[in-house]
Amino acid sequence: MTQLFRTAARVALLSGSLLVGAVSVGFAQLGVARPVGRQTVDAIIVKLDNQIVLRSDLENIYQQEVARAEGKPLPPDVKCQILESIVLNKLMLAKAEVDSVVVEDDQVKGELDRRMAYFVQQIGSEQKLEEYYKKPIKQLKDDLRPQVKEQLIQQKMQEEISGKVTVTPREVRQFFSRIPKDSLPYYSTEVEVGQIIKFAQVNQKVKQEAQAKLNDIRARIQAGEDFEKLAKEFSQDPGSAAQGGYLGFFKRRELVPEYEAAALRLEPGQLSPIVESQFGFHLIQLIERKGETFSTRHILLKPATGTSDVSEAAVQLSKVRKRILADSVTFAKAAKDVSDDKNTSGNGGLIQNPQDRSNYLPLDKIDPAIFFIIDTMKVGSITPPMPYRTDDGKDAMRILWLKSNNPPHQANLQDDYQKIAAAALNEKKNKALDEWFKKNRGDVYIEVDPQYAGCKLLNTVN
After folding, report:
1. Higher pLDDT, residue 210 or 39
2. CB within 8 A of 347, min separation 6: which ones?
């Protein structure tokens, strides 16, 4: 690992991006312990006011780095680098508490949903993820919530410290000139790929049929049949159907607005009218209110899309593609205005590399479903609309755009300016973070286990 990339590694730790790395590590990035027969004895290695760092915190991230290195040797001081970043994170948390820095519940929920969707996509289904951890999705989210909240607070503090830092072209050139020629990274083939996705919209007739079926179920419950039994028989929510539709306790703003609004209008035991949300149609029963939380059960029906619905999405994308090819609109503008994929629409439709958040995708690690399509494409070409299924199982159509195809090469300013500029910016931000650490470390009590006292940054804290 050259210094060019080591400067970026610390920012990755601070931003929490390691939590969405390769799942082949065994889902350690999920931040939730998988049940095992025997637990390793843990220990506190750093105390920082009310914050602590456990040996397992360090070792978990270190093992992720080992896996990411794919057999290549890591720098001898990598554990110190990791520990320094963890301690910096803890100091930011301590200062955030003093300065009353908070993040909104909606932001925490959104990040939880994003991460959980990623892991569901990687492992194949919600059921497989629950089987792996022997916990329902809701409990996994509950376990992960404090960690996500801490990371979002750290990000907010980091933004206040180094968010306004920029680099000039001159600084980028100076940064690149300091890298020894024999240490320049060698890039394998990388591509930039854009996509525009249109979901198949369920037609009105199918929606009405689902509503009618759910109203019949509602009438059966009102006539005395058991809600839980009918939920197990009819509900299409894999996370709650087996539990008779039970979702457990939630706070306000943790569920989709339509569901929450309907649930909070009910009295315990009362049934809601049919409620439509992005997930389908719900029949809700309020179970209990407890302080600021409430528990419910529901029966969910998901109206299925048909061939005509998918065809309509294809027609829309064909029109968009025609406009792009005629230079009436850029792909980036069309993605922003038309695409239903929130993950890429704001990025000009470009698919990001989950490892470093860049737009460059190593060809040997790209999604096979994309690889076999772009393998024969020319740069600048756009595919016709193709069937696509989203991570959460929605039928859709998409078009793919091959923006660039960069052959293997050693890093240079002409071809890799964006990457080098990002590394230069990371180095400058790291310096700003170091200066902040030195300035604020005296405001908190820090005690380091003697085993780690030799770490460069940490040996100056006592």
Report:
1. 210
2. 335, 359
Name the residue with tokens 């079926």.
213
Instruction: Tell me whether domains 3-186+412-460 and 204-301 share a fold.
Output: no
Q: What mean pLDDT is reported for the chain? A: 84
Q: What pLDDT, in 10s, does the model give residues 339-367? A: 999 889 999 999 998 877 789 899 888 88
What homologous superfamily does CATH list for 3-186+412-460? Porin chaperone SurA, peptide-binding domain (1.10.4030.10)
The Cα–Cα gap between 1 and 7 comes to 10
- Measured CA to CA in angstroms, residue 379 lies from 194, 290, 303, 374, 419 at distances of 11, 58, 39, 9, 20
Let me know: does 385 contact 398? Beta carbons within 8 Å. Answer: yes
Return the axis-axis angle of helices 137-162 and 126-133, rounded to nearest 10°: 90
- For domain 204-301, is the CATH number 3.10.50.40? yes
Q: What is the pLDDT of residue 1?
A: 32
Contact 61, 12 (CB under 8 A): no
Distances (CA, A) of 166 to 172, 424, 435: 10, 9, 16
Q: Where are the domains of the chain?
A: 3-186+412-460, 190-201+306-407, 204-301
Q: Give the N- to C-terminal CA distance of the chain in Å, as an integer.
A: 30
Topology classification of domain 190-201+306-407: Chitinase A; domain 3 (3.10.50)
Which residue carries 């035991």 as its tokens?
Answer: 269
C-alpha–C-alpha distance, residues 422 and 416, integer Å: 10
Q: CB-based contacts of 166: which residues, under 8 Å, 6+ apart?
A: 425
